[in-house]
């Protein structure tokens, strides 16, 4: 059993064709359930992408959705949270800091996460480098907020260890197209095992990247089960 | 003997990799980076890492040569020929310092005379840009000596000094974000190849095989500094045909380096 907490649905602007990739790539790696955001919502138009994703989710049972929030459009965000979270097909919020020009330190990101806390669901936030430390601080400053540090800082994974140590409502998700030796093992050895999740960034990145990196860490059966699905099931209530 | 992963857990990579073996990995290093954490890159340990991943030979260059002293580093690489462990071996690859193109050209001649078939370039580590005259100079000298060039750097820039001279090149850092740029230049340059290490989108290998042929793809791990399991899994679980998988897993590298 695997739950992928960082996945996407929709086309990308790179040289790739991922139209049929969701279920096919999930099957290849034994991923039973993926929580996806619409690429259109992440990259360009959040309401339009959320709307399209809502239609998709009505027709299948292996994908759940993130409501994507653009921190520069908080009224639209509030409207979408009200519309989609009650359907039960959306279980969290996705915020990409780069595509929206909203770094973790920006006031609009802080306001967006306050909105998420009010909605009561977890937020997956793109982090890179030391920004994961900023995310931990925002989380500490926002009562009730639960955040997933997407990519767990990528090359800033040691900052992610520090961030997780300082905030018990911050979860780490490992996907990255690079796989430096020992990255996952080092994080798994240092972080509370209940706050490690599995994510792939599919369909942008093939699941082999995160799957192989986690496999290389040689987690114990108990730790692997927590990473694979148990922590995600608890966090999202699924 | 294979590396221990989450065998028996949800993350059982070897179940997915099956019987795939790599006969020649094009991207292996001995030595350590002084500016980053990571393994010391001791040759015996690197060889055991390859063996645990069923990589039977690794085209290995010396970080000592790349970062400090070309000649003694390359001598270290040449000595790797004698090592064996658990059924795996090294194929030595030379290195030059692009910050000194005059001595680099002399070193290329020494390497070729010693039977080395490939030279590896480290432009990022040496702070050298694709437009620097030294890169063009080394590209031409290596091609004249019939050496295959393994190069780091962003393919969108590092294709240029190798274009139009009949060079045989493997771009080691091609990221799937830049696959389109590689494909359009490779269509014009039959000697252009790429490592699969960062071709991690769901259809990158398949798209490359369809556009320019699987004979342009070479398995590269950058062991011991990166996890060999990731490109292994990508290759084993993708949509390439068995003969194409075998070519990527070392057949193509053997043609270029052995």
Summarize it.
The complex is a heterodimer of chains A (238) and B (258). By secondary structure, chain A is α/β, with parallel strands linked by helices.
Task: Tell me about this structure.
- The complex is a heterodimer of chains A (238) and B (258).
- The two termini of chain A are 13 Å apart.
- The model of chain A has no long low-confidence stretch (mean pLDDT 97).
- In chain A, strands 1-2-3-4-5-6-7 form a 7-stranded parallel beta sheet.
- Chain A has helices at residues 21-28, 39-43, 46-58, 74-84, 107-119, 131-141, 157-166, 183-190, 208-216, 221-236; strands at 3-9, 33-38, 63-68, 90-95, 123-126, 147-150, 170-172.
- Chain A is α/β, with parallel strands linked by helices and 238 residues long.
- In chain A, helix 1 (21-28) links the parallel strand 1 and strand 2.
- Chain A has a single domain, classed as Metal-dependent hydrolases (TIM Barrel, Alpha-Beta Barrel), CATH 3.20.20.
- With 258 residues, chain B is of the alpha/beta class.
- Chain B has a single domain, classed as TIM Barrel, CATH 3.20.20.
- In chain B, the strands form 2 sheets. A 6-stranded parallel beta sheet of chain B has the order 5-6-7-8-9-10, with helices on both faces.
- The radius of gyration of chain B is 17 Å and the shape is globular.
Question: Which keywords apply here?
Answer:
heterodimer; A: 238 residues; alpha/beta; TIM Barrel; seven-stranded parallel sheet; 10 helices; 7 strands; B: 258 residues; six-stranded parallel sheet
SSE layout:
The complex is a heterodimer of chains A (238) and B (258).
Chain A: E1 3-9, H1 21-28, E2 33-38, H2 39-43, H3 46-58, E3 63-68, H4 74-84, E4 90-95, H5 107-119, E5 123-126, H6 131-141, E6 147-150, H7 157-166, E7 170-172, H8 183-190, H9 208-216, H10 221-236
Parallel strand pairs in A: 1-2, 2-3, 3-4, 4-5, 5-6, 6-7
Chain B: H1 13-17, E1 25-30, H2 43-52, E2 57-62, H3 63-67, H4 70-79, E3 84-85, E4 88-92, E5 94-95, H5 101-113, E6 118-121, H6 133-144, E7 148-151, H7 155-158, E8 169-171, H8 179-186, E9 192-195, H9 204-212, E10 217-218, H10 229-237, H11 242-257
Parallel strand pairs in B: 1-2, 2-4, 5-6, 6-7, 7-8, 8-9, 9-10
Antiparallel strand pairs in B: 3-4
Helix pairs in contact in B: 5-6
């Amino acid at each position: 059993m695997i739950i992928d907490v960082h996945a996407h649905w929709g086309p990308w602007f790179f040289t790739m064709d991922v139209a049929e990739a969701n279920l096919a790539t999930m099957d290849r790696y034994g991923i039973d359930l993926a929580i996806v955001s619409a690429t259109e919502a992440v990259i360009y138009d959040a309401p339009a992408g959320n709307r399209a994703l809502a239609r998709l989710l009505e027709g299948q049972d292996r994908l759940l959705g993130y409501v994507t929030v653009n921190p520069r459009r908080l009224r639209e965000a509030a409207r979408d949270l009200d519309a989609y979270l009650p359907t039960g097909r959306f279980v969290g919020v996705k915020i990409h800091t780069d595509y929206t020009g909203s770094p973790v330190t920006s006031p609009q990101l802080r306001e967006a996460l306050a909105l998420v806390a009010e909605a009561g669901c977890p937020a997956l936030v793109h982090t890179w480098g030391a920004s994961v430390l900023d995310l931990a601080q925002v989380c500490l400053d926002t009562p009730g907020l639960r955040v997933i540090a997407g990519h767990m800082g990528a090359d800033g994974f040691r900052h992610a260890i520090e961030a997780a140590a300082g905030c018990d409502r911050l979860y780490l998700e490992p996907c990255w197209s690079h796989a430096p030796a020992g990255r996952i093992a080092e994080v798994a050895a240092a972080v509370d095992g209940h706050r490690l999740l599995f994510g792939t960034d599919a369909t942008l990145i093939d699941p082999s990247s995160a799957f192989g990196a986690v496999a290389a860490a040689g987690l114990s059966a108990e730790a692997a089960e927590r990473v694979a699905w148990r922590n995600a099931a608890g966090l999202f209530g699924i | 003997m294979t590396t221990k992963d989450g065998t028996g857990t949800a993350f059982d990579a070897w179940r997915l990799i099956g019987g795939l073996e790599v006969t020649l990995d094009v991207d292996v290093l001995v030595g350590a980076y002084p500016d980053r954490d990571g393994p010391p890159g001791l040759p015996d340990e690197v060889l055991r890492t390859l063996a645990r991943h069923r990589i039977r030979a690794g085209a290995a260059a010396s970080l000592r040569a790349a970062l400090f002293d070309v000649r003694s580093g390359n001598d270290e690489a040449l000595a790797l020929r004698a090592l064996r462990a658990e059924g795996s071996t090294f194929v030595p690859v030379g290195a030059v310092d692009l910050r000194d193109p005059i001595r680099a050209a002399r070193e290329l001649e020494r390497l070729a005379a010693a039977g080395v078939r490939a030279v590896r370039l480290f432009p990022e580590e040496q702070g050298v840009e694709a437009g620097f005259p030294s890169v063009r100079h080394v590209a031409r000298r290596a091609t004249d000596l019939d050496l295959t060039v393994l190069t780091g750097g962003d393919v969108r820039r590092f294709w240029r000094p190798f274009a139009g001279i009949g060079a045989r090149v493997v771009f080691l850092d091609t990221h799937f974000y830049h696959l389109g740029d590689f494909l359009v230049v490779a269509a014009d340059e039959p000697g252009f190849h790429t490592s699969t290490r960062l071709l991690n989108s769901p259809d990158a290998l398949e798209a490359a095989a369809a556009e320019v042929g699987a004979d342009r793809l070479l398995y590269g791990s950058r062991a011991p500094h990166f996890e060999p399991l990731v490109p292994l899994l990508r290759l084993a679980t993708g949509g390439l045909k068995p003969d194409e998988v075998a070519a990527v897993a070392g057949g193509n590298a053997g043609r270029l380096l052995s």
